User: What shape does this take?
Amino acid sequence: TVHVARGFAHMAPSSSKVHAPASEQPLFGLSSEARLAGCVAGIYVFFITAGMLQEQIAAEEFGENDERFKYTAFLLLVQSVINFTCAWLVLQLGRFPKDTTPFSKYGLVSLSSIAAHFCSSKAIMYVDYPTQVLAKSCKSIPVMLMGLVAFKKRYSPSKYAVVIIITLGIALFMLNPPAAHPHSLSEKHPPTKSAPLVKPEVSLIGLGLLVLSLSLDSITGPFQEELVRTTNPSSTHLMFYSTIWQAAIMAVVVLATGEMGPALNFLTRFPAIIPQILMFSLFSACGQVFIYYTVHQFGSLLCTIVTTSRKFFTILASVVWFDHSLSPVHWVSIALVFIGLSADIIMAKQAAFVALWARLTG
Assistant: This one.
């Protein structure tokens, strides 16, 4: 998903409650429990559906030559434009305080964020979707490495233990790549004719793209934190201005690489993929709106818990819907990763957990 929203949880204060601007206070008189349930449902439904659509777009083959839609930059351009449109509509429907953040301040954050998303989206052409989701769940590893190398930070033994558990889970999963099911998609969801490539040499390319995406994520966080610390933009303004930058950046990339013509030609020859692209972009945008709202109403901790658990169910949905073959070793690997992620969240924000639990139960 484009994903300033993906990293927005790191931008909010570490407390379990973030005070939103008056324009973002509870809507329609709904109780806190009802709004929380709505946020969780929105994040799950929109992002899980968007993930399945994204995998379908990457896997589906068209025509006699079994052509795939490989125009990642064009896809992200469409997604950025729809994200911008959704944010603009929210701004028109609500009453928001004037944003005092200089427009240029959003540029660097948007560049690193869209570059990370480009790499992770491109990786789906080389690895299966469960691998991509699992790898992208492990942002703590590059963040920790960068802290050690660039900032000479020291970490507790428990932090090292968490990273070792996560790394072990990823290693087990990558050393036992899921078996491909040629034609499995076509049998369940015509006209798709093959599953994503999982050849070892191809998977290495995908793994490299995922490592690069995680590295970019690790530098996006500090930029975002500084932006919020200095100007504290509202969630909607943040999404609106960031997506303007992202759309402009991807437009330059599409034109510079000459991708616009071939992408439009593909859509002209195979118009059946157009609804998939539009639905994927729309569901991603709606999911981001729910993430922004969740952070502002319930805090970064709760948003992190919801988005982390959502990734597990995204993998589960992909396995069931696209008939990926996962062995017991793969499920153990997935369990190790999510156990490590859960422990990391708990250890990082113990006090916030106590406050959040008291707030939700009190």
